[in-house]
Each structure stands twice: as C-alpha cells, then as structure tokens.
Design a protein that fits this description.
Aspartate Aminotransferase, domain 2; 377 residues; 2 domains; 3-stranded antiparallel beta sheet; 7-stranded mixed beta sheet; single chain; Aspartate Aminotransferase, domain 1; alpha/beta; globular; 14 strands
Length: 377
C-alpha cells in the first residue's frame, strides 16, 4: 500500500475528464495570459466565499506582498505575525523593509495569542497578519475589535484554511479571508483548493483597496502602459484558472472528506497517552489542511523515524519557529521569549490527510502509531 501525504494523482483521476476538457479548451483558445477564465474563476470564488472582490495573482507569497503594498505602509513600520508559521508570512514583511514583530500562539490550537498581540503593540505597529494555521480561523472577532481600537490593518493569511467558516457571537458567519481588510490565499497544488502549478488570490470587501490591489498586481497600471504606482507582475495563468474553476465545484466535498478522515483519527488517538489530538475551536470550522498531533515526552522524532520505517510519511510543520531562523534572528526575540512556539516546533507531527483517504490507509497509520507507543511504554 503506497501512502502519500497528499494524493493529488488520485484526486485528479476522479475528475480527469472535466480537468482535461477545461485544459484543452484553454489551450485551443490561446488565451494563456489574462484569459476570460481568470475573470470567471475570480467571480465564482467571490460568490463562494462571500468576498466582494477577488483578485487572482501568481502565488500565495505574492498575495501577502501585494496586500502589504496596498496598505501603503512605510519602511520601519511594524507588522505583528505569529512566530509559529511558514516563513512567507514574515518574509514579505522584511522584503518591504517593514519590521516583523513575532508573537506567540496558543498551545492547543496554534492560533495567534491576542494577549501577546496587544502587549507587542507600539506606536510603530500598523498591521497584524493572523495565520489560519492548519485549517481553522484565528480568533477574528476579538482581533478585529483590537485592530479597530488600535487603528491597525488586518491581513488574513488564509493559505491553509480556504473554506473555513468563522461564527461571530451574534451568529454572523463569514469565511476565512473575508473578515480582515484583506485576505490572501495560495493555490499551491497540495492546498485544499490547489491548481497544477503556482497560483494565489487576494480577497477584500473594500472597493478602493481592490482597485489598488489590481493595479499593484499588474505593474501599477489601471490603463495599459500608464503606470500610476509601483507594482509587480503577478498573475494567475489562464490554464490554472481553468483547473481551479473545476476544482472549486468540489471544495465542499473535499472539506467533508478531510473532516471524515480527521474524525476517524481523533477517535483512534484520543486515549493514547503521549498524544494530543488537534483542538477544534468552537467559533471556527476546521478544513484540516493538516492533521497535526502533538507528540509529548520527546518522542516526536523517534515516532517520525518509526513511521518512515513502515513506509508511512509524516511531516514536521515547522521544525523551527521564525525567531530561530537565521534570517529572522533578533536580540528582541532570544531563546525562551516565545516558549509555546519553541515547544510546538519540538512536538508537532502532521499525518497524511487528503481527499482520497480511506479507512484501510488510516488503519495502517493508526496501527503503526499504536505499536510505537505500546513498544515505547
């Protein structure tokens, strides 16, 4: 039995006829750049998410950079980000000569700790980038209240949580990426909504921001060859838009499949000493981009090696918190300054989870993990 972290081939086979037809139609049209399918997909994604405006771009990292550029932040301005996240979240901040201010996350759900956010605020703080890590929303209601009090921008990093729904205390429900001033996402192939190359998008409900974002993503121009602002060249290929347009039809069923797999894992792992199963927040659904355990008592790396010996892949997202990365080392964040992020980097382990999971595959993984803990105990 071949076990994959993400079975993209199996997913493709199920919708092969639709995908192939869409790709051929795109090629025959010869609309390779900015074809009408890009606009159609953006409109369809806007309808799906509830965002007023969706602007496709080349990848998720570009989406984050463009979002920050659209806010007209100035060199030296501070942007608060969680220390436990992928490097891209902070990378674009540094690239624009802004200052990434790292804060800790909650130990149970990996979501940014708002108490730490408030303590990190200074007169130079201009924005916050919450990361909806592994598939569920950060605590957006309180975060937006904090941002309003402090006059801060909020840019949601939704690369791992497209389709997740956040419920406010008044019963209002909004999708990840549509709550802050700008939302960003990635269509990297392994994402919950992934294309067959690179791709990304930005969401906003602000018309002026949408206009600025579109210009920045297109060399700073609203009219061809007339460049009003400094921009970049970041566009979603028409071919990728055609693929995403098909796959968007299946996003809800993909989410259901991932949740079914996560539910099965939960039942099998919940009573094993030494394992903490993923926490599910009451105010956010979970789309399980990753199914991430916490392995206690220093056994994480040994378990990973044991699984590998059985032909079972697993991944550590992320082996170093941002303040331990050479690129972001700073006296402001010494060893021990972000203890939860530091501990998580030593304990987290993500198991295979994808749309093509079945009980047979999961049982092999579950048996191996139970064998490991029985042997080690």
């Amino acid at each position: 039995m071949n076990i994959e972290m993400v079975d993209l081939k199996g997913q493709y086979i199920k919708i092969k006829k639709e995908i192939d037809a869409a790709m051929i139609k795109c090629i025959e049209s010869a609309e390779f750049i900015n074809g009408k399918k890009v606009t159609e997909f953006a409109g369809k994604l806007a309808q799906h998410t509830g965002a007023k405006f969706v602007i496709p771009c080349a990848n998720g990292t570009d989406a984050l950079q463009i979002a920050l550029m659209a806010l007209n932040l100035q060199p030296g301005d501070e942007v608060i980000v969680p220390a436990f996240t992928y490097v891209a979240t902070a990378e674009v901040i540094a690239l624009l000569h802004l200052v990434p201010v790292l804060v800790d996350v909650h130990a149970d759900d990996f979501r940014i700790n708002l108490e730490k956010v408030e303590k990190a605020f200074t007169p130079k703080t201009k924005a916050i980038v919450p990361v909806h890590l592994f598939g569920q929303c950060a605590e957006m209601e309180e975060l937006m209240k904090l941002a309003e009090r402090k006059n801060l921008f909020v840019v949601e990093d939704t690369a791992q949580a497209i389709g997740a729904q956040y419920t406010f205390t008044d019963g209002t429900v909004k999708q990840a990426g549509t709550i802050g001033h700008i939302g960003t996402t990635s269509f990297f192939p392994s994402k919950n909504l992934g294309c067959y190359g690179d791709g990304g998008a930005l969401f906003t409900n602000d018309e002026q921001l949408a206009t600025t974002i579109k210009m920045i993503a297109n060399h700073g121009q609203a009219k061809k060859y007339y460049h009003d602002i400094i921009g970049v060249n970041s566009r979603l290929d028409t071919l990728q838009a055609a693929i995403l347009d098909i796959k968007l039809n299946y996003l809800n069923s993909y989410t259901q499949a991932r949740n079914a797999a996560a539910d099965y894992y939960d039942v099998k792992f919940k009573d094993i000493d030494g394992i903490i199963i993923p926490y599910r927040a009451s105010n956010s659904t979970h789309v399980f981009h990753q199914y991430t355990l916490q392995i206690l008592e220093g056994k994480r790396d040994a378990l990973k090696a044991f699984l590998s010996s059985k032909g079972i892949p697993s991944m550590v997202y992320y082996p170093l918190p941002l303040h331990f990365q050479k690129a972001f080392k700073n006296k402001r964040f010494p060893l021990g300054s972000l203890p939860v992020s530091e501990r998580l980097s030593e304990t987290v382990l993500s198991l295979p989870i994808h749309t093509e999971m079945n009980v047979e595959i999961q049982d092999k993984i579950i048996v191996a993990i139970k064998d490991f803990f029985t042997y080690k105990s």
